[in-house]
Fold Porphobilinogen deaminase.
Amino acid sequence: MSAVGTRTLRIGTRGSELATTQAGTVRDALISAGHEAELVIIKTKGDQSMESVEKIGVGVFTAELREALVDGRVDVAVHSYKDLPTARDERFTIAAIPPREDPRDALVARDGLVLGELPVGSKVGTSAPRRTSQLRALGLGLDIRPLRGNLQRRLGKVESGELDAVVLARAGLARIGRLDLITESLEPVQMLPAPAQGALAVECLSGDNALVSILAELDDPNSRAAVTAERALLAELEAGCTAPVGAIAEVVESLDDDGRIFDELSVRGCAAAIDGSDVIRTGAVGSPDNAEELGRSVARELLELGARELMNVIEAGDADV
């Protein structure tokens, strides 16, 4: 049965402040387009457990939302795209990727410090092997500590003095209106973000064509091209959301030989050793229409440069948040 018509669209979301805020932007956009919509909170194991993702399973933040789609409790699911498993599930369609937030990582440090000002031995909390490996590779002598919990709990560890700083996704802080806490937004030359960081995936059942068409109105083509390339890179590496892999793709304007402006997709990726001993980086530029193949080509070059061996050097860690 289609979810459209006179029915109110039920949007499934996790119950955290960040998740409900993210889903709320989708609800508001649908309402603005003339569709009734409401949020439905779905509890997930990822929200209830303090264990690492390796212990409770990749996709732990998204599986219950997908189950709610299948059993009809919700019509739409809103995910942080980077939490989705890289393997496609034909039961579902990502009908929209709304305009993406700034994908960079952000530092929240005591006393307004930036990364280069943190003294040797400073305790820095991070949830991801990707961040851990790249922070260690900078050679700043930081004491990297594991970090779990929602945004407020993580931020509280700096406020309490338990940690000197935490590294988080800038997009999450933007969505809850706390950009003022950021002491430094980390440029990709310092730290490549997680593939699809800052992007939302608006998902529904593949067979509901009417709903797919409605949700597609929320889709941003540039965001979709960038995320498609980044996720293809991750898939080609056969790496999951907890791997020490970073990627960023951007649609940029270029000039042809006749001075005409056209769009290109720039893709950069990296793989790192968790101990920070080595980071491999490479990139490519091509057509946004060829986003998936472009991402895969960057991944293949990373593999040729030894990415597989680096990614096998891994410690326990958590997914990017």
In short: Residues 52-57, 314-319 have pLDDT under 50 and may be disordered. The longest strand covers residues 261-272. The first helix runs from residue 17 to 32.
